[in-house]
Hints:
Helices cover 48% and strands 10% of the residues. The protein is mainly alpha-helical. It has a domain at 1-44.
Amino acid sequence: MPREANEIMEWFENYYVHGKVRHRLRRSGSVVQEPPLFSPSLWSVVNNIENTFPRSQNSVEVWHRRWETLVGN
């Protein structure tokens, strides 16, 4: 991975995967982290796929397009 991508990867990990590092434990070297702002359960589609829910919002997009046609811009 290019060095330039480290900052965005760290941001993604902090907000979407692991959460921000609160502190490191000196003896064990373990890391204590806050929960991520947007947990994987919120944005991951794995559960939707396993439960055969739609993977996209196409039906909502179709509704909006039709509504826009009816009421105009």
